[in-house]
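README, section 4: Worked example with a bound small molecule

Sections 1 through 3 covered apo chains. Here we extend the same pipeline to holo records, where the ligand is supplied as SMILES alongside the sequence. The molecule in this example is S-adenosylmethionine. Nothing else about the input changes; the structure line simply encodes the ligand pose together with the chain.
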Amino acid sequence: MSWQSEEYAGAGSASGTDILGAARRISSTAATRIAKPFNEIAERLHRLRVIYYNPEVYSLYTYKSTGAEPEEYNKWYFNKLVWHETTWMGIECYKSVSDMWNYQEVLHDQQPSLVVEFGTFCGGSALFFASVMREIGKPFKVLSVDIDHSRLRPEARRDPDVIFMESSSTASEVADRIRALKKEYPGKIFAILDSDHSKDHVLAEMKALRPILSSGDYLVVEDSVLNGHPVAPGWGPGPYEAIEAYESEFPNDYIHDEEREAKFGFTWAPRGYLVRA
Ligand SMILES: C[S@@+](CC[C@H](N)C(=O)[O-])C[C@H]1O[C@@H](n2cnc3c(N)ncnc32)[C@H](O)[C@@H]1O
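The generated complex, written as structure tokens:
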């Protein structure tokens, strides 16, 4: 078998690569055998380059986006109750998993010392935040507040890094507790609102946090997806409308982390990824 007749023919379209240049200078049968896999790799790389850098060929090989997929997926995810069956370490966690991944990335970037969650439910989300924070490895505390802890799972309650507080999130003792923890765990705060999803309540939560949060702190207003943004159109004014109302009253408090919000195509906190200015 000669290099020129067989090996070279198979790799002709990949000419110009260093691998082929080197291979062509080798003429023994043994060297040809060694060169063959390299030729195949070069050929494949060449084909990929043709596909990805040539718009006409690219369109033949790739799916044509309509632009509607993220919203359709969002609606499908909501209507199918995927979130209802989502767990963290076996405990219910009513979130979209792409938002959870975003939170993990925010926590890693921001390295807060205090996580404040309004809306505990079973404790899955509080446990998720504590798990991520433990991996980060700096001293921290999670404060999770709920008006009703009857559904809080014992496995979550045992977590040594989470304080579960049974109270309405807007009660003054909650603000006092956050202030005390802020002194004990100085640094940034990551706060997430996931309790009563009515406009008035979320607005009251945002206002309660206003004198507590400082520049660089992170606030996620969850479930702004409700009331037709784009799911549950009949919900009524909810978190999305609370963000709008808050921003019309305090337009300079927060910067929208739009890149983060858009990262996974859809989120359940549209307009709700906020960094304190
Ligand atoms: C959507 S669930 C929280 C889900 C949880 N964060 C998770 O990701 O799995 C909402 C929770 O908010 C609580 N809640 C309702 N009104 C509240 C209030 N005024 N203050 C604090 N919690 C409240 C409910 O008891 C319920 O457990």
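What to look for in the output: Residues 70 and 266 are 5 Å apart (CA to CA). The radius of gyration is 27 Å.

Section 5 describes how to batch many such records.
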